[in-house]
Known about the structure:
About 80% of the residues lie in helices and about 0% in strands. It is mainly alpha-helical and about 100 residues long. It is elongated, with a radius of gyration of 14 Å.
Amino acid sequence: MRGLGSGTLALEAIVLLLGIQPIRLLGGHLSGWAIGAVVALAVLAAVLAGSMRRSWAWHAGTAVQVLLLAAGLLHWSLGALGLIFGATWAYATWVRHKILG
């Protein structure tokens, strides 16, 4: 189960970092605060991906999803990513509870 959570968070970190430039080029007008928030969330997701053996990491992963959804206030595309990865994280959490009980 750690691999599922770790993989989800690692993919999220990669997508967040790779999403900065296309948003800027396509007229997204990301402010400095929004770019800083994206980088901070990507770093946090990467750190949590490596910490999935800890019991608190699943709760922290949920907090990352909430923060990404809240970053949608900075730019709508961040909110869309928050919805997509929030649903992915909810599925991973559901699978974890289904398997581990």
